[in-house]
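Exercise 3.2. Students should predict the tertiary structure of the chain below and write it as structure tokens, then compare their answer with the key that follows.

Predict this chain's 3D structure.
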Amino acid sequence: MKIISHEIEEIVDPTGILPGERYEFLIHIELPEEDEAYTTSGLLLRVIFAVDEQGARISQYHFIEKATNQVLDFSMLEEEEQMIAEYCQQNL
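Answer key:
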């Protein structure tokens, strides 16, 4: 998985129910053709990144096909998830 670029937006909880801070990352990624999630139109990885008393972590993520905005039902490998968590932490 290769990260091309990203966009970030803070998610504001108007109710105050969720502790800490939440950020939405839209990460533009590139996968090798042999990867089962590969698409010719490209992929986005939508990540909800939480920072609270438990630390910083990925609370949710989805792969999205760029051309159709369709959510794809794939999971990241453990090392990919760790790489993305570190990337989000560094880019807050």
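Discussion points: The mean pLDDT is 92. The helical segments are 78-90.
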